[in-house]
Specification:
It is a single chain. This protein has 144 residues and is of the alpha/beta class. It is 33% helix and 24% strand. The chain contains six helices and five strands. Strands 1, 2, 3, 4 and 5 form a five-stranded mixed sheet that branches. Strand 2 and strand 3 form a beta hairpin.
């Protein structure tokens, strides 16, 4: 039987859980569930429970959890990742990326000839060059 490892981390000044939020649409600040003086209970390297540190503490002690006591003001929030892709893509955004890393704004990048409209234009050029036309091949897209 594998060993179960528990760890309690906290107290954390504020934890943002994202629980109870709609899966689509804009969010208002008032919708966010912020837990003050929070604790995060880890079970085998995965978050098992988030709640009040002081409510989780007795349970963590009873199961022999490792206690990681934080001293100072900490905030915990989920890592937000936009993991979308585009099947058809012309051009390169490497120069845009380099310019952003150099501190340029999106407006400055666009004025220099880069940005999203540059790659949209290049994608359209490729589509025209190969004789590919969205409305012709996918009429349901045109209907939207």
């Amino acid at each position: 039987m594998p060993t179960i490892k528990h760890t309690l981390i906290g107290p954390i000044r504020q934890a943002l859980t994202m629980s109870g939020l709609p899966s689509k649409g804009a969010l208002q600040d008032e919708q966010l569930d912020i837990i003050k003086e929070a604790g995060i209970l880890i079970k085998n390297d995965k978050i098992h429970q988030i709640g009040s540190y002081w409510d989780l503490y007795p349970e963590a002690q009873s199961i022999g959890a490792e206690m990681v006591t934080l001293k100072g003001d900490f905030v915990a929030l989920p890592g937000l990742i936009d993991c979308h892709t585009h099947i058809c893509f012309g051009g390169s955004r490497a120069q845009d990326y380099a310019m952003r890393n150099a501190g340029k704004s999106y407006l400055e990048i666009a004025k220099a000839g880069g940005g999203i409209w540059d790659t949209v234009s290049q994608t359209r050029e490729i589509s025209s060059a190969i004789g590919y036309n969205y409305p012709e091949h996918f009429p349901e897209i045109q209907a939207q």
